[in-house]
């Protein structure tokens, strides 16, 4: 199982002082970024911007009701997201359904979605 520790950050050529790592997780790719102009400050603050792409359709997977990316995520939150992406074969489609239905008001980001969906 791939985790945050498997990400290898490299400078983003088109953005000075910004870094990105991408990793293929089956048919989905995760992109984790930080730096100037991004929704994450990096290792010093343990905050990162995260997006997920379907590499078979080249479409982004919506990770919140208000945006397709999640900002200011911590390593442990990214680990949890990576685990869900790898374990749940319908992850991308579930996110698309939540975004376009009544659930988009209730589930404001993936961590709340997980907590609410699996609460007993």
Strand and helix layout:
Blueprint: E1 10-11, E2 18-25, E3 28-35, E4 48-54, E5 59-61, E6 70-73, H1 75-87, H2 91-100, H3 103-106, H4 110-117
Antiparallel strand pairs: 1-2, 2-3, 3-4, 4-5, 4-6
Structural description of this entry:
This protein is an alpha+beta fold and 120 residues long. The chain has one domain (4-111). It is built from four helices and six strands. It is globular, with a radius of gyration of 14 Å. The two termini are 26 Å apart.
Brief synopsis:
By secondary structure, the chain is an alpha+beta fold.
Portion of residues within helices: 25-40%
| Number of individual domains | 1
Taken as a percent bin, the fraction of beta residues is: 25-35%
Secondary-structure element order, N to C: EEEEEEHHHH
Mean pLDDT over the residues:
88
Low-pLDDT segments, ≥5 res: none
Structural class: alpha+beta
Task: Report the span from N to C terminus.
Answer: 26 Å
The main pleated sheet reads as: 6 strands, antiparallel
Number of helices: 4
Number of strands: 6
**Cα-based radius of gyration, to the nearest Å:** 14 Å
From the spread of the alpha carbons, the general shape counts as globular
